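Appendix B, example 12.
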Amino acid sequence: MTIHIRSATKEDVPIVAELIRGLARYEKLENEVVMTEDLLAAGLFGERPYAEVVLAVDEHRPVGFALFFHNFSTFLGRPGIYLEDLFVVPEERGSGVGRALLEHLARLAVNRGCGRLEWAVLDWNRDAIAFYERLGARPNSDWTVFRLTGEALTTLAGQ
């Protein structure tokens, strides 16, 4: 297999949407997906893009993706890259696609002057955790992620 990593374009939105649905199936979270192709296109390629996507392609077949955005570390005084989602189609896992995507993001982080590349992983995903640890990544167990969504978010916003 020859893997090519490239930035997604607006024309790739249907492909990215299908890969996101594949990720949701894998994580058993299909019922939480409210994303539409229109929302995805606006968020990635609209007037103010909020995230970027790179696709892993074998020949002309998409086999994985990474969706990421910049954050900022006040302690480092530098930007970072936050990897929101990384997904490799099941039949290509173990073939180097995930590593190629992460290598690409690491290069982007270094080239953009970022101080770190970080992401979250579900506690039950032991295969992913072992993979990340083999790459040298370490869990940040001193922190707990909190999230506001839905009614809690709108209530706090005073709406």
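The CA atoms of residues 100 and 153 lie 36 Å apart. The longest strand covers residues 61-73.
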